[in-house]
C-alpha cells in the first residue's frame, strides 16, 4: 500500500512538472515564433516602405535636377554650355531609370506602377530631344516655350507617377506598423497567459510538494516517536560516548537520558564483563558489525539478557564515525533456556549443559593453549544419609553444597554442574596440576566445614566429599568423552579412601585415553 501511494505521488509530481515544462516550452516557442515574425516584418518594412520611399524621393530630386538641367539647355549661351547641359540631362535620366529598375525587385505592390513611372520618363525623352534640336538650330524662343509647356507638363506627369509609388509605400508601411502592433499585443497576451499559468502551476506544485513533505515529515516524526518509545536503540560516537538513546532503552535500563548522553557506558555491560566490551570494540572499529547476546546491567544493578546488533556508521571516507546499537530483550527466552540447562533442585547447570560446555571449553583451551581441569565430586555415604535423615534432608544437603560451590567458583570461566544424584562436576581453565589440587582441596575442606551432621558416615561426624580430577595441557586435550572417563577414574580412586582429592596430569605427547600419572597427588583423609 505504501509503495503504491509512493508511486502515485511520484506520478503526480512528474505529471505536474511535465505540464509546467510544456507550458514554459509553449511560451518560449510562441515568443520565438513571434520574434521571427517581427524580424521578417521589420525586414519587409526595410525592403519596401523605407527603401522604396527613400529611392523614390531621391528620384524626385533627380527629376528636379533633370528639369533644371533642361533649363540650362534652353538658356545655353554657346555650344559648349549646350553640350554640357545635354550630357547632364542624359546622365540623370540613366540614374533615374536605374533606380526604378532597382526598386522593382523590392517593391511589394503592382510592378505596373514602376513601369508607368519608367514609361513617363521615357515619354519625356522626345520632348527633350525636340528642345535640344531647336537649340542646336538656334531657335531658342520656341525651345523655351516647348520646355515650359510640354516639358513641364511631362515632369508633372512623372512626378504624379512617383508620388503614387511613395503613397503606396506609405500605405504599406502603415499596414506593416499595424500588423507589428497587433503581433506585439498578441505576443504579450500569450506570454502573459502562459506566464500566469506557469506561475500558477509552479505555485500549485510547490504547495503540493510542501504539503506532501509536511505529511511525510509528520509520518517520519510519528515513526521516530514509535521507534523512540518501542525500540531499544542508542548511538555512540567514536569515543564511545552516547549521543542518542531512545526513551524505550532508558526505561529498560532505568537511566535518564541526562545520565547517559555524553557518557561512556560500554553498551551497559557489567564491570566484570569488560573483556566482552573489548571484543565488541575491536570488531566494530574495523567496520564490521557485531551481533551477540550479553547480560545488560540496569541502573538498579539487575542484569537483563539482550540480543544486540551493533553496526558502525560510516563516514564519507568509509571509516566508522559512530556506532548504533539495537538491542532486544531475551530475558524470558534466557529463563526458558536456563530451565532447560539448569538443575531444578540446586539451580546449577545440569548434565545436559555439561555436554555443551565441555566441548566449548575444551576447544577454547586447545586454541589458547591453556590448562583444562575437570573435577567430579561425590557426596560420601549419601545413601546412608537419606536412610537416616530422609530424602528431603538429603535434598537440603545438596542445595547447601551447591550454594557453597557457586560461591567459591567466581571466575567467568568456571562452571559447576549437578551431574546427577549426589555427583557434582567442576570445569575450570587456566590452572595447572598443583593449582587445581590446591583449589579442590579448599573445596573439600569447605564442604566438611559446612558442619552438616552425618551420623552414619564411616569417616567423620559431618558430610564430606570425594573428588577426582584430571588436568590437561593445551593441544594435548583429548576428546570430550575421554576427559570425563579419566576424571571418573580418578573419582573412583578417591572414593576408595573417601573425603580426599585424587588426580593426575596428562603429559604432552601421551596417547589419548591412556592415564599417564606424573606424580601421585598426596591425599588427605579424615
Oligomeric form: single chain
Chain-averaged pLDDT: 83
Q: How much of the sequence is in beta strands?
A: 5-15%
Count of DSSP E strands? 10
For the sheet with most strands, the description reads: 5 strands, antiparallel
Estimate the helix proportion, in percent: 55-70%
- Outline, from the CA principal axes? rod-shaped
Task: Detail the poorly predicted runs.
Answer: 506-526
> Which secondary-structure class do the elements indicate?
alpha+beta
Give the radius of gyration.
60 Å
Summed up, the helix count is: 13
- Terminal-residue CA separation: 80 Å
Give the strand line-up of the largest sheet.
2-1-5-4-3
Note the run of SSEs as H and E: HHHHEEHHHEEEHHEHHEEHEHE
Lay out the secondary structure.
Blueprint: H1 2-74, H2 79-106, H3 112-136, H4 140-230, E1 232-237, E2 242-245, H5 247-253, H6 257-260, H7 274-284, E3 290-297, E4 303-314, E5 320-329, H8 331-341, H9 351-368, E6 371-379, H10 382-389, H11 391-408, E7 415-420, E8 423-429, H12 433-448, E9 465-473, H13 480-495, E10 501-505
Helix pairs in contact: 1-2, 1-4, 2-3, 3-4, 10-11
Structural notes for this entry:
With about 525 residues, this protein is an alpha+beta fold. The chain has helices at about 1-75, 80-105, 110-135, 140-230, 245-255, 255-260, 275-285, 330-340, 350-370, 380-390, 390-410, 435-450, 480-495, and strands at about 230-235, 240-245, 290-295, 305-315, 320-330, 370-380, 415-420, 425-430, 465-475, 500-505. The strands form two sheets. Strands 2-1-5-4-3 form a five-stranded antiparallel β-sheet, sandwiched between helices. Strands 7-8-6-9-10 form a five-stranded mixed β-sheet, with helices on both faces. A hairpin with a 2-residue loop joins β7 and β8 (about 425-430). The protein is rod-shaped, with a radius of gyration of 60 Å.
Amino acid at each position: 500500500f505504501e509503495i503504491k501511494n509512493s508511486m502515485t505521488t511520484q506520478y503526480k509530481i512528474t505529471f505536474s512538472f511535465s505540464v509546467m515544462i510544456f507550458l514554459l516550452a509553449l511560451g518560449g516557442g510562441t515568443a520565438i515564433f513571434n520574434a521571427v515574425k517581427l524580424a521578417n516584418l521589420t525586414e519587409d518594412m526595410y525592403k519596401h516602405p523605407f527603401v522604396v520611399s527613400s529611392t523614390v524621393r531621391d528620384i524626385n530630386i533627380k527629376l528636379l535636377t533633370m528639369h533644371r538641367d533642361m533649363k540650362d539647355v534652353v538658356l545655353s549661351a554657346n555650344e559648349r554650355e549646350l553640350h554640357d547641359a545635354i550630357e547632364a540631362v542624359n546622365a540623370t535620366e540613366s540614374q533615374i531609370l536605374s533606380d526604378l529598375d532597382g526598386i522593382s525587385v523590392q517593391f511589394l505592390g503592382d510592378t505596373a506602377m514602376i513601369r508607368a513611372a519608367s514609361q513617363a520618363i521615357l515619354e519625356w525623352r522626345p520632348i527633350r530631344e525636340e528642345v535640344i534640336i531647336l537649340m542646336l538650330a538656334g531657335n531658342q524662343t520656341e525651345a523655351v516655350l516647348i520646355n515650359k509647356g510640354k516639358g513641364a507638363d511631362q515632369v508633372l506627369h512623372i512626378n504624379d507617377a512617383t508620388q503614387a509609388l511613395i503613397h503606396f509605400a506609405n500605405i504599406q508601411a502603415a499596414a506593416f506598423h499595424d500588423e507589428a502592433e497587433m503581433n506585439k499585443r498578441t505576443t504579450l497576451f500569450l506570454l502573459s497567459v502562459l506566464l500566469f499559468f506557469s506561475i500558477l502551476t509552479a505555485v500549485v506544485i510547490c504547495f503540493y510538494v510542501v504539503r506532501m513533505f509536511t505529511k511525510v515529515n509528520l509520518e517520519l516524526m510519528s515513526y521516530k516517536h514509535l521507534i523512540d518509545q518501542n525500540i531499544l536503540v542508542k548511538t555512540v560516537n567514536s569515543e564511545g560516548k552516547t549521543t542518542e538513546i531512545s526513551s524505550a532503552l532508558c526505561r529498560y535500563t532505568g537511566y535518564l537520558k541526562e545520565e547517559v548522553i555524553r557518557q561512556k557506558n560500554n553498551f551497559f555491560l557489567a564491570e566484570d564483563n569488560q573483556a566482552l566490551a573489548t571484543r565488541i570494540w575491536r570488531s566494530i572499529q574495523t567496520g564490521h558489525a557485531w551481533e551477540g547476546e550479553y547480560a545488560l546491567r540496569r541502573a538498579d544493578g539487575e542484569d537483563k539478557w539482550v540480543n544486540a546488533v551493533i553496526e558502525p556508521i560510516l563516514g564519507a571516507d568509509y571509516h566508522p564515525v559512530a556506532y548504533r546499537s539495537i538491542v532486544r530483550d531475551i530475558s524470558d527466552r534466557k529463563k526458558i533456556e536456563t530451565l532447560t540447562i539448569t538443575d531444578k533442585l540446586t539451580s546449577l547447570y545440569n548434565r545436559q549443559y555439561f555436554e555443551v560446555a565441555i566441548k566449548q571449553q575444551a576447544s577454547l583451551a586447545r586454541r589458547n593453549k591453556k590448562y583444562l581441569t575437570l573435577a567430579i565430586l561425590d557426596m560420601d555415604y549419601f545413601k546412608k544419609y537419606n536412610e537416616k535423615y530422609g530424602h528431603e534432608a538429603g535434598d537440603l544437603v545438596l542445595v547447601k553444597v551447591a550454594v557453597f560451590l557457586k560461591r567459591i567458583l567466581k571466575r567467568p570461566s568456571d562452571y559447576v554442574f549437578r551431574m546427577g544424584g549426589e555427583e557434582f562436576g567442576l570445569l575450570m581453565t587456566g590452572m595447572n596440576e598443583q593449582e587445581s589440587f590446591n583449589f579442590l582441596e579448599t573445596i573439600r575442606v569447605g564442604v566438611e566445614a559446612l558442619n552438616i551432621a552425618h551420623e552414619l558416615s564411616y569417616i567423620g561426624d559431618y558430610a564430606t566429599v570425594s573428588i577426582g580430577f584430571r588436568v590437561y595441557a593445551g593441544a594435548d586435550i583429548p576428546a570430550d568423552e575421554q576427559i570425563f572417563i579419566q576424571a571418573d577414574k580418578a573419582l573412583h580412586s578417591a572414593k576408595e579412601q573417601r573425603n580426599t582429592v585424587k588426580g593426575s596430569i596428562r603429559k604432552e605427547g601421551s596417547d589419548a585415553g591412556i592415564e599417564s600419572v606424573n606424580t601421585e597427588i598426596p591425599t588427605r583423609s579424615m
